[in-house]
Amino acid sequence: MAALLRWSSLLLGVAALAQSPSFREEKLHGRHAYVLSNGLVRVSALRGGGHIAEVRFESGDSRRTVNPMRVPHYPTIEPHEYDPARHDALYGANPHRWLSSGYMGHLLCFPAFGPPSSDDEARNGLGNHGEAPIVEWKLTSHSADAERVTLEYAADLKRTQYRVGRKLTLRRGEQALLVEEWVENLAPFDRAMNWVQHATFGNPFAEPGKTFMDISATRGEVGPRSAGASLAAGPVTWPEGRSPSGQPVSLRPFQNAAKAGTYYALLMDQSRKESWFTMYHVDYPVLIGYLYPTADNPWVGDWQENRSNTTLPWDGKAIARGIEFGTTPYAEGLRKSVERGRMFGVPTFRWIGGSARLSTEFTIFLAEIPTGFAGVKDVTRDASSIVIRPAAGAPVTLPHRR
Prior knowledge:
By secondary structure, the protein is mainly β. Helix content is 10%, strand content 43%.
């Protein structure tokens, strides 16, 4: 198995070396997208909301080129063009409407994670997961040469007085995307904030009972409001939780309870400088993974939606699994995360100084996996590669220059 993985990766890398990285603007599911490609991997970032809506292999059959990212079953729009008179009938009239209207793939939850903290915030046009995922992200610069393609795009958060931006880099012959991200406080005073990456996977890649996650987590909790058909409330130790009847349940698979929602929070292994998670579907030869600094992202929330939400525009049809890593364990809104303060002794929100600018980064990578793949034991990296250690078999090395 290991030999097959290494040989497959080598052949793909050789083919990709013949193709120079490129940048273009085009439409993705009717949305304006900034597209990066190196002949091996294709990445699309949306102008509306900044979402990373596509990370996939470019060649092979449909199973190999599947886009793991969530594309809603309903049509989406550019969220910054939202018109309540026209769009409330499609997306509802609640504070989630702006996000729902443009939600696709990986989004930035900033400066809040979860719903508005009050009715006043909702009346002032603040919606779920903050302002960053519903505004226009304008192209700042792009470049492409024989070695790499880069995209820089940014957004003004006028209501909350922030500015945010990203630089995406895809190198020739690599299966990994480097995302460098920054946030800037435009107010002169210190403020509390939530800063969470919401990597959302959708069908066909996300499927109850068939999609598995592995992660460098330690312990966590199913909150009382999150308990239900899938998991019982209370503490969990990765990778095991409890069913509502008290029986041991593996947390690795997308829970298979029908018409159910699942959410639990996990604390990353604080002894690691860099954390990781991976996701795969047993019927697809594709593994997607993330690497990110533990200090910036001590928490992960595993959100699973299996046709339980019957409000507009979900209509009891949505299937999705979102891995939400960042400063905050629960999508409960900024005020409640501040009032919570700490969980397991670790802060549940972050401060930003007046007129300060903070930065972080994360890497998204793809690997090809064989039939019968049993999961991932560890992921590490050095200056030139990402090393995936499967639960069975020899390590797989992906080139990735920092």
